[in-house]
């Protein structure tokens, strides 16, 4: 049996860096040390608050989970 341990979440904001011809340029900022048990509603609310502080428009909000897998003996 494999056990999983969530030990950190990260928030990644993908930002609109404009266009290069017909290609979208994206930039990103990642924020770490988010408690893994934070529910998605609160996570998104915080992302909205941080978005207001960015100089570029936010295209996407992503949640990155870091999970350690360990085999049970």
Provide key terms for this protein.
3-stranded antiparallel sheet; alpha+beta
Structure write-up:
The chain is of the alpha+beta class and 73 residues long. It has one domain. The chain has 1 helix and 3 strands; from the N terminus they run ββαβ. The protein has a 3-stranded antiparallel sheet with strand order 2-1-3, covered by helices on one side. The longest helix is centred in the middle third of the chain and has 12 residues. It is elongated, with a radius of gyration of 16 Å. The model has no long low-confidence stretch (mean pLDDT 94). InterPro entries: DUF1659. Pfam families: DUF1659.
Q: What does the secondary structure layout of this molecule look like, with pairings?
A:
Blueprint: E1 2-20, E2 23-34, H1 40-51, E3 58-71
Antiparallel strand pairs: 1-2, 1-3
Short description:
This protein is an alpha+beta fold. The chain is 16% helix and 62% strand.
Total number of distinct structural domains: 1
Report strand %.
over 45%
Distance between the termini: 8 Å
Q: Report the strand count.
A: 3
Structural class: alpha+beta
Q: Could you list the spans in which at least 5 consecutive residues all have pLDDT below 50?
A: none
Described by the principal axes of the CA atoms, the overall outline is elongated
InterPro entries: DUF1659 (IPR012454)
Pfam families: DUF1659
Domain DUF1659: 3-71
Protein name: DUF1659 domain-containing protein
């Amino acid at each position: 049996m494999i056990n999983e341990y969530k030990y950190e979440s990260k928030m990644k904001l993908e930002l609109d860096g404009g266009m290069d011809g017909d290609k979208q340029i994206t930039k990103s900022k990642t924020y770490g040390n988010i408690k893994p048990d934070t529910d998605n509603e609160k996570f998104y609310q915080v992302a909205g608050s941080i978005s207001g502080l960015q100089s570029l428009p936010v295209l996407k909000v992503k949640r990155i989970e870091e999970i350690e897998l360990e085999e049970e003996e």
